[in-house]
Write a structure and sequence with these properties.
This protein has two domains: 134 residues, Roll (Ubiquitin Conjugating Enzyme); 48 residues, no CATH class. 36% of the residues lie in helices and 22% in strands. It has 200 residues and is α+β, with helices and mostly antiparallel strands. The strands form three sheets. It has a four-stranded antiparallel beta sheet with strand order 1-2-3-4. It has five helices and eight strands; from the N terminus they run αββββααββαββα. It is found in: Cytoplasm; Nucleus.
Length: 200
């Protein structure tokens, strides 16, 4: 990690020194540093919104964008995704310099305006290292294990809605039922349902 990034981490620890405002979640010489900042910003109705911002600073930060996660009990999933996208867009303007404090200040001042804008959904967390390799910090694997299902169709619709709300893509697979996977991004539900009926 660069000296500028180390200095930024020290400064952030001093700035966010209140109870539970700052926490280093992990630190690695190969993976970088992950930390959490709790802050407040003015929401749509003028009330303070508590934001949990998790930053992942890659080893080559600040020459690469940080990974950002946004969590709040006062925001919907779609609003959290929109806030994350706007923070990443703002971070592109600050590339090559320590930016976390600037991003926190920016969202504190602009959260209400961000929430008033229509949702986008085209965000990307890609960065290019000095070797020209592309790293995608947005790739996640999630496994949801259900030990029984009373209404498989209802579960499928619920999972598809969650995936849509979170703007996720992937496959829905049922273990033990051969060839019954569904690509959530495609709209070939009829063919999949026919295959499911054959296997039930």
């Amino acid at each position: 990690m660069a000296d500028a990034a180390r200095e930024e981490l020290s400064a952030l620890a001093a700035i966010f020194c209140g109870p539970d405002e700052w926490e280093v979640l992990s630190r690695s010489g190969t993976e970088g540093t992950v930390f959490r900042i709790l802050t407040k910003a003015e929401g749509l109705m003028g009330a303070d919104v508590l934001l949990e911002l998790v930053f992942h600073l890659p080893v080559n930060y600040p020459s690469c964008l940080p990974g950002i996660s946004v969590h709040s009990e006062h925001l919907t999933r779609a609003q959290s995704v929109t806030v994350k996208e706007k923070l990443l867009k703002q971070a592109e303007n600050l590339l090559s310099e320590p930016m976390v404090h600037e991003l926190v200040l920016w969202i504190q001042q602009n959260l209400r305006h961000v929430l008033n804008q229509p949702e986008t959904g085209s965000g990307s967390e890609k960065c290019t290292s000095a070797t020209g390799m592309t790293v995608d910090d947005g790739l996640w694997l999630t496994l949801l294990h259900l030990d029984h299902m009373r209404a498989k169709t209802k579960y499928i619709k619920t999972i598809e809605k969650w995936a849509s709300d979170l703007k996720l893509t992937g496959k829905l697979m049922f273990v033990g039922v051969p060839a019954s996977s569904k690509n959530l991004q495609s709209r070939c539900g009829l063919k999949w349902k026919e295959m499911q009926r054959e296997n039930d």
